Amino acid sequence: MTDRNFTTSRVSTQLLKTTRRQWLAGTAASVLALASGQLQAQPSNGAQRVLRVGHQKGWLSILKNRGTLEKRLTPLGVSVRWVEFNAGPVQLEALNVGSIDFGDVGEAPPIFAQAAGAPLVYAGATVARPGLEAVIVPKGSAIRSVADLKGKRIAYNKGSNVHYFLVKLLEKHGLKYGDVQSVFLAPADARAAFEKGSVDAWVIWDPFLAAAQKTLDARLLADAKGVVNNRAYYFTSRDFASRNADVLRIAIEEIAVIDKWASKNQKAAAAELSQILGLDTTVTELYLSRAEFGTQAVNGEILAEQQKIADTFFDLKLIPKKLNLLHAAPVDFLASR
Q1: Most buried one in 79, 131, 155, 306, CB count within 10 A?
Q2: Statement to judge: residues 99 and 238 lie in one domain
């Protein structure tokens, strides 16, 4: 592309092009394809193993582009198949029907998948990244503190990581969840409502957050520091984990290599990510400037964080039953040598 200017139009047509209607259509199409077996692994011989990686445009795309995972796994007779999705819930549906083996997702979608009975195992987690989600308001807004949000219209994605963040942020500042007017909107619709002034605030994550700051001059009211940890997770199925611990260990190790490189080469990482996401580098540079880098095993403490999210979503009646996440007890693939 010759024009790298980051405009509102560019945001709308690239990063934010998926409206709720499009997302639902994409979900239905993906599930139909999965159910018909179009994405099922087809190894060339009975002895060869296949790692089917589900991913969204983002961090795992860097690993895909570099081909280092394939180089590590080829000597073991393991091939890699990449399947791109437009949202985390679709990835987890693919896992549930047995069409992918591994993927990355935010902290909220696994809770819904587990509530639906998906055979999910947490294969790894990022370090805490509370700086990557925040409440933003228009630059000239009279809202100056979290307490000022009382009675205001707040846009955010229902059942997402920022939904949980908002609940805990309000609690920390002496407000109840019902003290604000929730406006459930997907990022594309939320941005449009924020830009038009139809809502008073927007709770959002990066890189949407950085894009709003750079292109809409939005003001950051409060991020998640000191409120929630905001991790992302790498997941697999219990069946795949039981048969392929060596493959999963290598996958987590190669992701950790990318993390380590990015932590020491943020400008280069921002440039690479800008190409993947179709964003101006000023946006990805802001995004990565507040990121924490690192991959770790999912221990009992981290799993307890997920349990708190599950309990909160149950109390909000977002999931139909109370979960005990011990059945999703993780395996430390980094230690499986």
Answers
A1: 155
A2: yes
Nearest CA among 277, 188, 289 for reference residue 6? 277
Q: Are residues 25 and 90 in the same domain?
A: yes
Structural Rg of the chain based on CA atoms: 20
**What is the rounded CA–CA span in Å between residue 190 and residue 181?**
14
> Does residue 284 lie within any of the structural domains?
yes
- 82 and 29 inside one domain: yes
Cis-peptide, bond into residue 187, ω within 30° of zero: no
Q: Which tokens belong to 176?
A: 């109840």
- Please state, in angstroms and rounded to a whole number, the distance separating the CA atoms of residues 253 and 258: 9
Tell me which residue has tokens 């990449």: 82
The rounded distance, in Å, linking the Cα atoms of 161 and 308 is 12
* Paired residues of 232 in beta bridges: 106
**φ and ψ of 154, to 5 deg:** -120, 125
Would you state the structure tokens that stand for residue 276, as one six-digit string? 């993947």
CA dist 162 and 37 (Å) reads 34
CA–CA gap between residue 15 and residue 283 (Å, rounded): 12
pLDDT profile of the chain (337 residues), mean per 10:
36 41 37 37 59 92 94 96 86 91 92 89 95 97 98 94 95 96 94 97 96 96 97 94 94 96 96 94 97 92 93 92 73 51
CA distance 238 to 52: 15
CA distance 268 to 172: 37
**How far apart are alpha carbons 304 and 238 in whole angstroms?**
19
For residue 203, report the phi and psi dihedrals to the nearest 5 degrees. -105, 120
Q: Are residues 147 and 183 in the same domain?
A: yes
- What is this structure's pTM? 0.81
Cα of 261 vs its chain's centroid, Å:
20
Tokens 């709720």 belong to residue: 20
What range defines the domain where residue 140 resides?
Answer: 130-223
Structure tokens given for 182: 């929730």
Say if CB 191 and CB 208 are below 8 A apart.
yes
